[in-house]
Write a structure and sequence with these properties.
By secondary structure, this protein is an all-alpha fold. Helix content is about 75%, strand content about 0%. It has 15 helices and no strands. Helix 7 runs antiparallel to helix 8. The two termini are about 15 Å apart.
């Protein structure tokens, strides 16, 4: 079998298994293992575990569980709901302001966790019921959260950018820097789109600013600043430390994780084991999922390289 045919078979098998609904890590790893057994010497199978471990033994990968811990601390406590309600007070009177508040909350939450699923889960669990209550259609409410959740893979610290940087051996700091502009631009475009779509649906009495429950005076808005300040402080510290050259991505992740845990413990009283257990267990589950994908992707690329498919 020629290298071209082998490459087409390798890629085709991968797509078939992925579209079958199998988890990504098992799909990619299963295809790689099958091709190792079929087309490579048995000694390569014997050193498979050593190959994966040597690739995972990377200090940069420490950023992944730490950034996941940041998101879990905010998302699984009352902090996420506070972030959402505070932004809603500032944007409530704007036509479509409730939807815009959801997009902005997604962007700020993404800047603390770097995960799209975590962003959708944390903001969507609060935002979708509230938007439906205010007359937003199910399609619009879910679309706002789905679109806002994608900001998690773009706005630093993005787990996807970390994964890309590790696999391609690129500077994670530069990748983060390149994600800020597009992330802010997409946030603004999403908010504009929400306003336009809101006007098209002609829901001035049921959603946005016309509802009396959504009207807040300046005193009510200023009352939210103490609740918003910790979130903004964490984001500013992360960005300044990273782009100011004061800390590496791994060190910034540690600082951010400690700051978020300190925030939920001191400000939200999440110091009991029953409060901390969901945060820690959620961190372990998501981190293991991401690390498993990374491990299997290394194995997948190793097989591609050995069989000269990349060439």
């Amino acid at each position: 079998m020629s290298t071209l045919q082998l490459g087409l078979l390798y890629g085709g098998a991968t797509f078939v298994v992925l579209f079958s609904g199998m988890p990504i890590a098992f799909a990619v790893g299963g295809v790689a293992l099958a091709f190792m057994l079929a087309f490579m010497p048995a000694v390569n199978v014997a050193i498979m575990a050593e190959t994966i471990y040597s690739e995972l033994d990377n200090f940069v990968l420490l950023t992944i569980p730490l950034f996941v811990l940041m998101g879990a601390a905010v998302g699984k406590s009352r902090a996420g709901a506070d972030l959402y309600s505070s932004l809603n007070r500032w944007l409530g009177r704007v036509p479509g302001g409730l939807g815009m508040a959801n997009v902005l909350a997604c962007s700020l939450f993404a800047a603390m966790c770097g995960s799209s699923p975590a962003t959708c889960s944390a903001i969507g669990s609060v935002g979708i019921p509230e938007m439906r209550k205010r007359g937003y259609s199910a399609q619009l409410a879910s679309g706002i959260i789905a679109a806002g959740g994608t900001l998690g893979i773009l706005i630093p610290p993005s787990l996807t950018l970390i994964l890309y940087g590790v696999v391609t051996e690129q500077s994670i700091g530069k990748l983060f820097l390149g994600g800020i502009g597009p992330g802010i631009l997409l946030t603004m475009l999403f908010m504009i789109w929400v306003g336009i779509r809101y006007r098209r649906e002609h829901r001035a009495e049921a959603a946005g600013g016309a509802d009396a429950a959504q009207v807040f005076d300046w005193r009510a808005r200023l009352e939210t600043l103490p609740r918003l300040a910790p979130f903004l402080a964490v984001i500013v510290v992360i960005l300044v430390a990273l782009y100011g050259g004061w800390a590496t991505p791994s060190e910034v992740a540690g600082i951010g994780a400690f700051a978020c845990l300190l925030m939920v413990v001191t400000l939200y009283g999440c110091w009991r084991w029953s409060d901390l257990k969901p945060i820690l267990s959620g961190t372990v589950r998501e981190s293991c999922m991401v690390m498993m994908i990374i491990a299997m992707s290394f194995l997948y690329t190793y097989v591609m390289s050995y069989l000269h498919i990349t060439q």
